[in-house]
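Severity: low
Component: inverse-folding endpoint
Summary: output formatting inconsistent between runs
Steps to reproduce: submit the following structure tokens with default settings.
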């Protein structure tokens, strides 16, 4: 770190003779009207307010400020100070970042003794939220002085400077119990009090090395991210609903759980009792679900996690919106919205890797594979690969690893790779992982550097807004003219409010809410008091059968609904058996047809396999099941929830003894994957009545 930046530091004092308070500030901008100085709001309050503040003995004018109990930052304008250099801002407050700061203090904290200007060194430890009330909480960073000195009165307002001589924060206060520890206000909070100036100030931070050609190639990558993430991945919806739904139309800012998250673990009662005793309603099974305590966190949204640069895991059940949250963050960063939305000086470059689409364990390390996947089929791929690697090493990348629970390679390999990324000796680039909690438990022992969060359930006041956004977006996409959007939303919201299980478990789950809305358009409506998670998926399968059959000749009309459901169930079961390692290989159409044709349910109809092929083709037409683009054209599901439901449904067709043996024979290393299937199976055992009238 150089020393010239210290010349930007100034002394804040009072024009009142009887006021000896003082603090530190620094010059951040200059125009024809003067120099602009940053310091803390409480420093200005201490020296007697805006009318009495002076900077290096020059009267100052307050241009913008936040309250001392909120964004404790103020911008002053001062005539002169032309000899002072400018400190350029850069959002780089992250755990482990080392910094220097320089400020004023008096010997022995006595204003009558000598005034000292000194440079100190420290390290950032973690982000917290601080304020006088819950409404004034704002992000600050805890710091610790590592040099042979301590924080003193007068240091408030000092610039916190990183190794590149860029200011990343402002010294806020010291902790009275430990004079080597204190708080730093991140520089990006300047946006909240000075939004009109914030963008142009931070625009100066684009590195000279980020030349025109580099920008052009990165722009190619960002446009590719936008193309991948702007539309909702709702391929499981019927054709008259599925097109044109964009994530910006429906997305609602997710909050994160601060105190705990629920996980499905191996319950003793589940192992001890016979399957006959498992015939319980889903609501009763839910009451037995244990709670796993997690570390309390100061973050309340994914935005704050991204802003802080923390490595994090986003946990959630099937359909809760993990992938959508990951896609939304990638989209906003790729669109260049990171500065205003996430409070970043220079938006992180997102690299999005769908772990569920990896069919074999890569030969390369994970970051190399992620970069190669990101540039596949792009122009100038080789050069762009080098650029993205450089950006990763420079700390300018957010690597989003989506759907750990769908990864089909070696779990030991993927956990070791993520562990290396999380524990790397790099500051800046960060990792965001998404997973169901049950699978995350398989690797969580290694990933001690990750903060684990889950999406919170919607609060009462948010449900109406959430349902309204989704319903209107689906209606707009479907171009249905026979439904009044406002009345439909009002009726649906009113119904949800009156049924606690739907409000708590369904309305907060984006997949289940989408299914609920689609079913609400069905003639006769929907009986919300009968809705359960398993029952809702069951009703949707019935809906798709009816919808596909309504297309006439395209569907095998002669086959009954039960037979179609059995093929769907067997498909889900066989795909899950393959993916969870119960037998080697992958599930392809020929292998699946062979299994289906040999089943007692289909054998009596046609032993040649033609009948099974027609019914499987029926399900491929619905979109729930698809053939992947890999070489083997393997069978997969549009959304994993339907695969798990199919597997659970298949268990209901088996004897209790066979089900017990199947669940006992599950590969122990992948046993967590079957917990969610078992949960759905328990819900189906109660045989909930149809929810469609």
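Observed output (run 2 of 3):
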């Amino acid at each position: 770190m150089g020393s010239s930046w210290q010349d930007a530091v100034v002394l804040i004092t009072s024009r009142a003779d009887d006021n000896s308070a003082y603090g530190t500030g620094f010059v951040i901008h200059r125009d024809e009207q003067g120099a602009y100085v940053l310091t803390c709001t409480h420093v200005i309050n201490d020296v007697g307010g805006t009318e009495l503040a002076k900077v290096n003995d020059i009267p100052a004018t307050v241009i913008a400020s936040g309250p001392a109990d909120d964004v404790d930052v103020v911008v002053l304008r001062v005539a002169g100070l032309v000899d002072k250099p400018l400190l350029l801002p850069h959002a780089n407050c992250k755990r482990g970042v080392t910094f220097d700061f320089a400020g004023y203090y008096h010997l022995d904290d006595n204003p009558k003794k000598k005034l000292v200007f000194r440079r100190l060194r420290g390290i950032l430890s973690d982000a917290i939220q601080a304020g006088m009330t819950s409404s004034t909480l704002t992000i600050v960073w805890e710091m610790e002085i590592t040099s042979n000195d301590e924080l003193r009165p007068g240091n408030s307002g000092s610039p916190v400077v990183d190794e590149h001589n860029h200011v990343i924060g402002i010294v806020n206060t010291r902790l009275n119990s430990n004079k080597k520890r204190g708080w730093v206000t991140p520089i990006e909070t300047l946006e909240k009090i000075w939004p009109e100036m914030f963008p142009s100030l931070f625009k100066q931070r684009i590195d000279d090395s980020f030349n025109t050609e580099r920008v052009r190639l990165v722009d190619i990558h960002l446009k590719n991210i936008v193309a991948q993430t702007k539309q909702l991945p709702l391929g499981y919806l019927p054709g008259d609903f599925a097109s044109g739904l964009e994530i910006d139309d429906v997305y609602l800012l997710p909050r994160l759980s601060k105190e705990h998250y629920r996980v499905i673990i191996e319950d003793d009662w589940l192992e001890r009792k016979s399957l006959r005793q498992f015939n319980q309603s889903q609501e009763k099974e839910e009451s037995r679900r244990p709670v796993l305590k997690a570390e309390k966190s100061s973050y309340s949204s994914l935005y704050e996690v991204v802003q802080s640069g923390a490595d994090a895991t986003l946990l959630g059940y099937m359909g809760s919106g993990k992938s959508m949250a990951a896609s939304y963050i990638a989209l906003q960063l790729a669109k260049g919205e990171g500065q205003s939305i996430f409070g970043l000086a220079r938006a992180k470059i997102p690299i999005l890797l769908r772990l569920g689409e990896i069919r074999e364990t890569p030969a390369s390390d994970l970051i190399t594979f992620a970069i190669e996947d990101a540039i596949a089929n792009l122009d100038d791929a080789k050069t762009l690969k080098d650029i993205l690697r450089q950006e990763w090493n420079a700390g300018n990348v957010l690597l989003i690893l989506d759907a750990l629970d769908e990864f089909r390679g070696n779990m030991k390999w993927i956990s070791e790779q993520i562990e290396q990324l999380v524990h790397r000796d790099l500051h800046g680039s960060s990792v965001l992982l998404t997973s169901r909690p049950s699978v995350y438990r398989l690797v969580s022992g290694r990933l001690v550097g990750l903060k684990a969060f889950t999406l919170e359930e919607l609060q009462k006041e948010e449900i109406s807004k959430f349902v309204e956004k989704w319903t209107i977006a689906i209606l707009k996409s479907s171009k249905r003219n026979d439904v009044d959007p406002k009345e439909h939303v009002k009726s649906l919201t009113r119904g949800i409010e009156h049924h606690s299980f739907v409000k708590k478990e369904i309305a907060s789950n984006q997949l289940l809410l989408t299914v609920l809305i689609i079913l609400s358009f069905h003639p006769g409506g929907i009986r919300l008091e009968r809705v359960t998670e398993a029952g809702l998926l069951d009703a949707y399968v019935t809906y798709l059968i009816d919808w596909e059959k309504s297309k006439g000749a395209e569907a095998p009309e002669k086959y009954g609904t039960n037979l179609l459901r059995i093929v769907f169930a067997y498909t889900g079961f066989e795909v899950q058996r393959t993916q969870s390692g119960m037998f080697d290989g992958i599930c392809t159409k020929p292998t699946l047809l062979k299994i289906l044709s040999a089943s007692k349910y289909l054998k009596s109809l046609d032993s040649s396999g033609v009948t099974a092929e027609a019914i499987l083709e029926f399900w491929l037409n619905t979109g729930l099941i698809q053939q992947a683009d890999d070489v083997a054209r393997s069978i997969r599901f549009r959304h994993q929830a339907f695969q798990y439901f199919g597997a659970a449904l298949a268990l209901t067709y088996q004897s209790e003894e066979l089900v017990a043996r199947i669940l006992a024979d599950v590969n122990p290393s992948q046993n967590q994957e079957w917990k969610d299937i078992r949960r759905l199976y328990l819900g189906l055992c109660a045989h909930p009545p149809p929810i469609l009238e």
